[in-house]
Design a protein that fits this description.
This protein is of the alpha+beta class. It is built from 3 helices and 7 strands, in the order E-E-E-E-E-E-E-H-H-H. The N and C termini lie far apart (35 Å). The C terminus is likely disordered.
Length: 140
């Protein structure tokens, strides 16, 4: 599911992929449901391509969001995205204990909490791995 949810640089919120063509994609805002075109010049990233730094490796955003969901029992985050940076770091330590405190900034945590809340509010809170069946090739 996260491979259909997009972050677009310079635009607030998250977007769901609706359609794509050669030169553009059509996205729908998770905030207000409005559709709009996005072009090749816009920097678009799927949430499935994002990871967070830890002391030893990078953890896919999917796992971080799933950990938040378990911590919050499926509800919105118990911390305000606009909270003090120390409070945000303390919250992330509950979600991802070994996060890299030098490379994960308070702004990253604010964005994480905002995205999590938006995904939960919009019903896009299935953070399990997208498993697509391999296409079978006919036996010769």
């Amino acid at each position: 599911m996260l491979n259909q949810i997009l972050s677009i640089s310079g635009k607030p919120g998250l977007y769901k992929l609706v359609s794509q063509s050669r030169n553009m994609i059509i996205v729908e805002s998770l905030v207000d449901g409005k559709r709009m075109p996005t072009y090749a010049r816009d920097k678009v990233v799927t949430l499935s391509d994002i990871a967070m730094y830890t002391e030893t490796k990078e953890v896919p955003l999917r796992q971080v969001l799933d950990s938040m969901k378990r911590l919050e029992n499926g509800a919105k985050a118990s911390v305000d995205p606009k909270a003090d940076p120390a409070v945000l770091r303390e919250y992330l330590a509950k979600v991802l204990p070994d996060f890299d405190r030098d490379r994960v900034y308070p702004t990253d945590i604010k964005k994480l909490v905002s995205w999590y809340n938006l995904l939960v509010e919009s019903g896009n809170d299935d953070f399990s791995e997208d498993i697509r069946p391999k296409e079978e090739t006919p036996a010769e």
